[in-house]
Each structure stands twice: as C-alpha cells, then as structure tokens.
Amino acid sequence: MTRERIHLFDTTLRDGQQTPGIDFSVEDKIAIAKLLDEFGMDYVEGGYPGANPTDTAFFAEKRTQSAKFVAFGMTKRAGVSASNDPGLAALVQSKSDVICFVAKSWDYHVRVALGCTNEENLDSIKASVEAAIAAGKETLVDCEHFFDGFKANPDYALACARTAFEAGARWVVLCDTNGGTQPLEVRDIVAKVIAAGVPGENLGIHAHDDTGQAVANSLAAVEAGVRQIQGTLNGIGERCGNANLISIIPTLALKPAFSERFETGISTEALAGISRLSRAFDELLNRAPEAQAPYVGMSAFATKAGIHASALAKDPATYEHVPPEAVGNRRKVMVSDQGGKANFVAELKRRGIEVPQGGDRLDALISVVKAREAEGYAYEGADASFELLARKMLHTVPEFFRVTSFRCMVERRFDAIGQLKTVSEAIVKVLVDGEEKMSVAEGHGPVNALDLALRKDLGKFQHEIGDLELVDYKVRILNGGTEAITRVLIESRDATGARWWTVGVSDNIIDASFQALMDSIVFKLMKNREMAGLVAAE
Questions:
Q1: How far apart are alpha carbons 145 and 157 in whole angstroms?
Q2: 443-456, pLDDT tens digit by residue?
Q3: Is 471 helix (H, G, I), strand (E, B) or coil?
Q4: Which terminus of the chain, N or C, has fewer Cβ atoms within 10 Å?
C-alpha cells in the first residue's frame, strides 16, 4: 500500500524568532538553517526580507542545499499594484525558492487591521500569488486567523482559501493564529474546506500552542486531509509557542496510526538524530534542554520506581511506548529513595561500574543513597555525584586533591567615587601531592569567587580543567526560614560537549555550593582518565 507524503515546513527562523528573549543573528540563522537542511526538512522559512537588516542580509544568498528556502511577507497593499509594492518586490528579489504570503482570512481583521474591503483583500491575495508565480517562485498563502475567521464568517474565510488556490498557490495554509481552536474543531473545519473545493494535498496547518494542543491540532488536521505541517524546533514561538516539530516528527514516523498511512522526508537514520538536533538547538539558544520534553528529553525514558525498573530489565516495552534509540535518546533508570535494588544494578551497569560479588557493599550504597536523599540530596538529578559516590563505595576514587579549608567574604561598601559596590572574595587551601596551595579570587558573588579560587591552582592537574565550564546553577530551599537546609545543583560541561550534574546539601548555601563544585572537578578528572563519564559522553 502506497503511503501519502506529509511535507514538513519549519518556521523556526521566522515565527520562532517571535519568542520573547530570542533574537537570531545572521550567523545564528545560517547555523540553524544548516541543521534543518541536513536533518531533512522539506521547507525552511528564513524570515521576512526587507523587514529588517538581519533578514535582508540572510536572504542575500540561498541558505539551503536540499530544503526549499522560503521567504515570508505580506500580500500587496490594497490600492497599490503588485508591480509597485515595495514589500512584494523584496520577496521576489530575494534568493528564495518559495514565497509564503500571509493573508487576512477573518473579515474582522480585514476591516480593523487592513482597513480595506473584503473584495480588496481577495484581490491582494490573487495578485500577489500571480506575481510570485510569474517570478518563478513556488507560492504559499498563510491564511491568518483562518479558524477564528471561519467560525465568524465561513463564507469569507473559504473565499480567501479558494482565491489563493485558484490563483495557483501550491499550498493554502490554515492558521490557528490565536491558538485557541480545539482538535475536534480543526478536524471539522478542515473537512469543510476540502468539501468546498481546496484539495487536502494543497492544504497545510499552522497551529499555535495557547491551549497546549498545537501538536494535537496539527495531527488532527492531517487526519482530516492536510498534507503539510508547519512548526518550529522545540515548539518555540510567540506567546505559548508553535507546534513542536520535534514531537510531531517521531509521532508520524513511529506511531502506526500515522506511519502506516503517511511518510515524511525524514529518514530512519535522521530520526535517530532528532534528540541531538533538539539539544543542539537549545545549546545555540544558550538555554537548558527541557528534561521532560516528549521523545527527546533526558527524562523521556527515565524510570524511578523500583517495580518499573524491574519490569524494564525483563522487557523494555513494559514501560516504553517507543524504543528510545529510535529517536537518539536512551533509557535511564534513576536512583532515589523510591528505587529498589534493580534500579541501582541497572544504573551501575549502564555506567560501566562492576557490582562486586558477595559482601554487602551494594546494600551499603543503597542505604547511603536513601539516607542522603532523606537529608535533601537528589541523586536522580545529579548523575555525576551519584557516580562518584558509587565508585567510592564499591571500588575506589583517587584523591587528586584535598581541600583543607576555604573562606568566603562578601563586602558591601562605597568605592572611591561614592558608588555602592558588593565585592566577593574567596580563599581556598588545597593539598596536591602533599604540597599546600592557597588561591585567592574575586568573583561575581561568593559562589563564583569560590569556583575561581578552587580552580586557580590544582598543580599538575591544572591543565586538565581548562575547558571545564559551569553552565547552570540551581538552588532549592528544602524547609522554611533563613536557617533552612539548601540543595544546590550545578551543571558542568567540557570541550567534548559532555554535560553532568553534581549536588551539594547544607544549611549553608556556600558550603552546599562548594560540595557540588568539588564533585564537578573530581568527576572531570576521572572522566579525563576514562574512569568515569561513560554516560556523560553519550
């Protein structure tokens, strides 16, 4: 049985750029376009040439090899011919393969936002599509606010879609711009559009996530007949974001309800790299990946309860809806106070840590982990600290250095010109090969000062930690009051791209931070010697 083709349209570089706090440079856009192109997207929408210097520069060259390179812009203005509209000219002159026009399809917006008549808006759609086709560009029309417009005035919304199609648009895209439409409504309205004369093979869906249903709405539209899906990497976009292609693509490929009927341009090999794509994109955005993201999150295939881990050891299908390897992720059995022996054995095996035969060292490790978690430690979120503890109790961990003391001072004072300043200074004394070294450093806050002082002079190990970088720092107060027990989690990485978490707990936030910092450095030194870090390197 021949499967129908679903076309994937990525708008990360255009609609995704509407995300608060995200502002792509030309270099960012080039890097992201390359990721999308190599992954196998059918369309990569790059932005709005003519609207700003960045997008204009980006469209000075074609930025994809295989994917169709898409320029986005408005239909021509009412009262101006297509040949005299500067915005349309910028689109036609850009180095794009495709032009995607945004057109109003809700009569309320035509009246309020455009200030023209319904007929003038239809003429703008028709003339713009014809001008783009005459210039040799494949053409799409995003029918903005289509679902709200259909519910308000179905005849006019359908007229907009039909006008675009009859003018020659390859794709007429139905947009849930406000993100409030429900899947049942999407399915019903798409069916009515097809019945009104716009074939499903020419229809696309563009869903926003304001009710948390952008992925569901996109898949409902496919079931109803559309054959193009628009979305973004990791669901970025204005307000609550766009449909998340990182969730949609594995569903289309791995769920029989879709995979038996449809195919995409994403190969099995490319799909196995989708977790890496998701994390690489977050890395470029300089933000931590979402641990519970479907398919690709670090917790997507994580198991905490002991009975679950026991079943997983017998057959992974007991608690996994797809094989994690299919999306480039991995199974993770978490160690915690809720875990049984099966969790620990599975996790130790995954880390290449041999469990000694006989004796009671494993039982002692389990007892210590549960006791420490009762004190506030969280080893399920601190993989490196757990590995160090396990290796220390089951085998041995070299003593690379020993901190004999540290002191941290915070001074708030006026400087020489009368400006109020807060200065943090740390002193750390370290024994390396029997020789005591004292380092002093100032930093942006006490933790940064301690981090700098600790790493300032580790003797013969100093050159090994040059690429060690602290990338995230989280504090959790475990009970009330200023004297509360505090948990600190630190994420580190090195030049290999490996990342790991360490934990410290104390009634003193500085002490808790220092515990986590020391674990991070020891783990790095172990990893350099291939004595740890098997999981971090994956």
A1: 9
A2: 989 999 999 999 99
A3: strand
A4: N
256 token code pair: 């029989």
Contact 104, 135 (CB under 8 A): no
Residue with tokens 């971090």: 536
Q: Residue 264 and residue 5: Cα distance in Å, rounded?
A: 6
Of 245, 219, 250, give the one whose Cα is nearest residue 324: 250
Amino acid at 209: D
Query: To the nearest 10°, the Cα dihedral for 495, 496, 499, 500?
Result: -100
Q: What letters, b where the CB count within 10 A reaches 16 and e where it falls short, cover 516-526? A: bbbbbbbbbbb
* Residue numbers in the chain where pLDDT is lower than 70: 1, 304-315, 317, 333-340, 342-343, 480-483, 535-538
* Sequence-separated (6 or more) residues with CB below 8 Å from residue 172: 140, 141, 143, 161, 164, 165, 198, 202, 203, 204
Q: Tokens for 53?
A: 């210097």
Residues 6+ apart with CB under 8 A from 405: 428, 429
Structure pTM? Answer: 0.73
Q: How far apart are CA 480 and CA 482, in angstroms?
A: 7
CA distance 229 to 226: 8
Q: Are 41 and 265 in contact (CB under 8 A)?
A: yes
Give the amino acid at 22: I
Q: What is the pLDDT of residues 12-65, one digit of tens each?
A: 999 999 999 899 999 999 999 999 999 999 999 999 999 999 999 999 999 999
List the Cα angle 245/250/256 in 5-degree steps. Answer: 130
Cα–Cα distances (Å) from 222 to 15, 149, 202, in that order, read 21, 20, 12
| Beta-bridge partners for 4 | 262
Helix, strand or coil for residue 395? Answer: coil
User: What is the model's pLDDT at position 218?
Assistant: 98
